[in-house]
């Protein structure tokens, strides 16, 4: 079990980040463990994003540049793969083509109009929310928002890898991780992660705890809607769909965090 957990952590960090972690085992058992560890990878990405944003703000950059910094870090730490997946998924869904043709469009190296528009709007939304969090709540609120968004995004990947969700293709990362995580374990990880995010938000009081918990729940709900739509349209999930799910969850979490008093 210790060995499997070690391989799982390597899988999570090696596939979900560009951190120098070598994936030493590539099979569905390791993928299951790795996707259960996905929120930990999100925590590291979120902390790095929060650190750069907070340091920028404390150095006098202003909330807008701090927000851009916090958005840039996750993109850099994934080589833009999640954003690329979001754009490809938007192109596939927006094409209106049958599943086989839509999947072929998603595999093309170029980006279409649906992908460009979706990418632009998502990045603008993320920067706008973090700008408001850093501007109105200071470095602490903005940094916590960056962490919660990153954790929520990777938690959505854990749930998207649950058993019963098929792969749309027989090859690729989507085929390796699709359907590997038992539903009970995925739910357990989700409950623990939501509780921890609530505990982090509790620093600003009971409302803060509820607000941050709701942000993660909303992130998972938005991601689930996209996931189900993609399964209906494509017949399953792909690596691009996983990227789209992660970015959708991150954006939803941030939007909820900026709503309310």
Automatic annotation (TrEMBL):
<feature type="transmembrane region" description="Helical">
    <location>
        <begin position="209"/>
        <end position="227"/>
    </location>
</feature>
<keyword id="KW-0472">Membrane</keyword>
<feature type="transmembrane region" description="Helical">
    <location>
        <begin position="172"/>
        <end position="203"/>
    </location>
</feature>
<feature type="transmembrane region" description="Helical">
    <location>
        <begin position="36"/>
        <end position="58"/>
    </location>
</feature>
<comment type="similarity">
    <text>Belongs to the CobS family.</text>
</comment>
<feature type="transmembrane region" description="Helical">
    <location>
        <begin position="64"/>
        <end position="81"/>
    </location>
</feature>
<keyword id="KW-0812">Transmembrane</keyword>
<feature type="transmembrane region" description="Helical">
    <location>
        <begin position="139"/>
        <end position="160"/>
    </location>
</feature>
<keyword id="KW-0808">Transferase</keyword>
<protein>
    <recommendedName>
        <fullName>Adenosylcobinamide-GDP ribazoletransferase</fullName>
        <ecNumber>2.7.8.26</ecNumber>
    </recommendedName>
</protein>
<keyword id="KW-1003">Cell membrane</keyword>
<feature type="transmembrane region" description="Helical">
    <location>
        <begin position="114"/>
        <end position="133"/>
    </location>
</feature>
<dbReference type="InterPro" id="IPR003805">
    <property type="entry name" value="CobS"/>
</dbReference>
<keyword id="KW-0169">Cobalamin biosynthesis</keyword>
<comment type="function">
    <text>Joins adenosylcobinamide-GDP and alpha-ribazole to generate adenosylcobalamin (Ado-cobalamin). Also synthesizes adenosylcobalamin 5'-phosphate from adenosylcobinamide-GDP and alpha-ribazole 5'-phosphate.</text>
</comment>
<keyword id="KW-1133">Transmembrane helix</keyword>
<keyword id="KW-0460">Magnesium</keyword>
<feature type="transmembrane region" description="Helical">
    <location>
        <begin position="239"/>
        <end position="259"/>
    </location>
</feature>
<dbReference type="Pfam" id="PF02654">
    <property type="entry name" value="CobS"/>
</dbReference>
<comment type="pathway">
    <text>Cofactor biosynthesis; adenosylcobalamin biosynthesis; adenosylcobalamin from cob(II)yrinate a,c-diamide: step 7/7.</text>
</comment>
């Amino acid at each position: 079990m210790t060995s499997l957990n070690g391989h799982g952590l390597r899988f999570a960090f090696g596939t979900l980040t560009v951190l120098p972690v070598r994936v030493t085992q590539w099979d569905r058992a390791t993928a299951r463990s790795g996707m259960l560890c996905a929120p930990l990878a999100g925590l590291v990405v979120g902390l790095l994003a929060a650190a750069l944003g907070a340091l920028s703000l404390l150095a006098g950059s202003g909330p807008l540049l701090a927000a851009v910094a916090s958005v840039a870090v996750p993109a850099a730490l994934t080589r833009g793969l999640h954003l690329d997946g979001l754009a490809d998924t938007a192109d596939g869904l927006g094409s209106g083509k049958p599943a086989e043709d839509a999947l072929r469009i998603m595999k093309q190296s170029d980006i279409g109009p649906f992908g460009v528009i979706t990418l632009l709007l998502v990045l603008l939304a993320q920067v706008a929310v973090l700008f408001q969090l850093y501007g109105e709540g200071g470095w602490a609120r903005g940094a916590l928002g960056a962490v919660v968004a990153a954790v929520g995004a990777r938690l959505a990947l854990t749930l998207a890898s649950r058993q019963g969700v098929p792969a749309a293709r027989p090859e690729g990362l989507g085929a390796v991780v699709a359907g590997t995580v038992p539903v009970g374990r995925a739910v357990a990880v989700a409950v623990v992660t939501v509780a921890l995010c609530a505990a982090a938000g509790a620093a600003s009081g009971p409302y803060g705890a509820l607000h941050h918990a709701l942000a993660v729940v909303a992130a998972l709900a938005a991601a689930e809607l996209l996931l189900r739509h993609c399964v209906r349209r494509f017949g399953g999930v792909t690596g691009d769909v996983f990227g789209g799910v992660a970015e959708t969850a991150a954006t939803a979490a941030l939007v909820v965090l900026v709503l309310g008093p």
